[in-house]
Specification:
two-stranded antiparallel ribbon, mainly alpha
Length: 195
């Protein structure tokens, strides 16, 4: 994992109420790119980000060799981590999963994370979302009444960093933790979870 203050810094700036940009600078002040590029899970994650349509209801087709290879490589990198090995052992010990690690468990992770489902597509046989897309990439949802677009999902800092660097996403500021005083980002720079 990246260590705060050593491998990355954030620049929270000011709190925002949503549509007002209270942060003229980028969220990430510094990232140790060598560590990012040399950590297999991070390196295999980034190529997955361009495989998805942000718009809910827009059908996606992931049936090509390049995308299948990217998913397989990412899952292999995940399987090489201590937390996924621990998860597998816990599931086996508690009789929640039965099967070998490299084949059956990888297949189950692929099914849970990457198999598509229909969130808003008119043709229910078409898929426009997946657990991976919602949680790690994010989706855009348009309000039918106002036409405003909001982001749903997107609970991943690495995707945000990638989209921020591409100029696709703009950081507007943060919402301070409930019950906490202060408005400046300096009051919350050491937080590990932010909204």
């Amino acid at each position: 994992r990246l260590k705060p203050g050593k491998d990355y810094t954030t620049n929270l700036q000011r709190t925002t109420g949503g549509r007002r940009d209270a942060a003229p600078d980028e969220l990430f002040g510094y990232i140790n790119d060598d560590k990012l590029n040399n950590t297999p899970v991070f390196a295999k994650f980034i190529p997955l980000l361009d495989n998805y349509e942000f718009e809910v209801g827009k059908a996606e087709n992931h049936d090509n060799a390049i995308e299948r290879r990217e998913v397989s490589d990412f899952l292999d990198a995940c399987l090489d981590t201590a937390c996924i090995r621990y998860t597998y052992k816990w599931l086996i010990m508690n009789k929640r999963f039965n099967g070998n690690y490299k084949i059956a468990f990888k297949r189950k992770l692929k099914e849970l994370w990457f198999d598509g489902y229909s969130r808003a597509s008119r043709n229910r046989r078409e898929t426009d979302s997946s657990a991976f897309e919602h949680v790690f990439v994010g989706e855009h949802k348009r309000d039918r009444d106002t036409g405003k677009i909001s982001v749903i999902g997107m609970h991943n800092w690495l995707a945000f960093l990638t989209f921020e660097r591409q100029g696709t996403w703009n950081y507007y500021g943060f919402k301070k933790p409930k019950g906490r005083r202060g408005r400046s980002g300096k009051d919350f720079e050491n937080e590990q979870v932010m909204t």
